[in-house]
């Protein structure tokens, strides 16, 4: 791959707009740009998970980081469809594999644990926000249904990984204890 950026600043966004991959320009607060920002935040936190889970981070996370860039490219190109059923199946296989070794979930789990598990919970919350933004944009632009499925499964995987990492790093999970009786 050759040089894509020879200069980091272009000044083209100084008016509050930014370019999409098809050459069109939209305001920086456009729903597509909001989702791209959500994906960037999510990908950054996944990077934190990988660092905190060293020396043995979940191997699927590097794949997910690359897929999130693909998903961003899809969303930056109106009408593009890069997310495929195989991408969703990849997450489902990982979920099935990790979940098979976990005890059944009988109570709500509080976000926490050591760093890697806590960052998984944060990434799950960011993923859910991304999903909400995608659903809103889908009402206007009819997105690739596989994209919505992928983000939904990814939030599930991040939750399950939080459980796995909490057990691996500290041996337990913290369950919700209602303060007020039901």
List the helices and strands and how they pair.
Elements: E1 17-19, E2 25-27, H1 31-52, H2 60-75, H3 85-99, H4 115-141, H5 145-170
Antiparallel strand pairs: 1-2
Helix pairs in contact: 1-2, 1-4, 3-5, 4-5
Structural features:
about 5% strand; Hypothetical Protein Ta1238, Chain: A; elongated; mainly alpha; single chain; 2 strands; 5 helices; about 180 residues; two-stranded antiparallel ribbon
Evaluate the radius of gyration: 18 Å
Largest beta sheet: what is the strand line-up?
Answer: 1-2
| Main beta sheet strand tally, sense and closure | 2 strands, antiparallel
Mean pLDDT: 92
Overall 3D form: elongated
Q: Enumerate the spans where pLDDT stays under 50 for 5 or more consecutive residues.
A: none
Describe the protein's architecture and organization.
With 182 residues, the protein is mainly α. The protein has a single domain, classed as Cobalamin adenosyltransferase-like (Hypothetical Protein Ta1238, Chain: A, Up-down Bundle). The protein contains five helices and two strands, in the order ββααααα. The chain has helices spanning 31-52, 60-75, 85-99, 115-141, 145-170, and strands at 17-19, 25-27. It has a two-stranded antiparallel ribbon. α1 runs antiparallel to α2 (60-75), α1 runs antiparallel to α4 (115-141) and α3 runs parallel beside α5 (145-170).
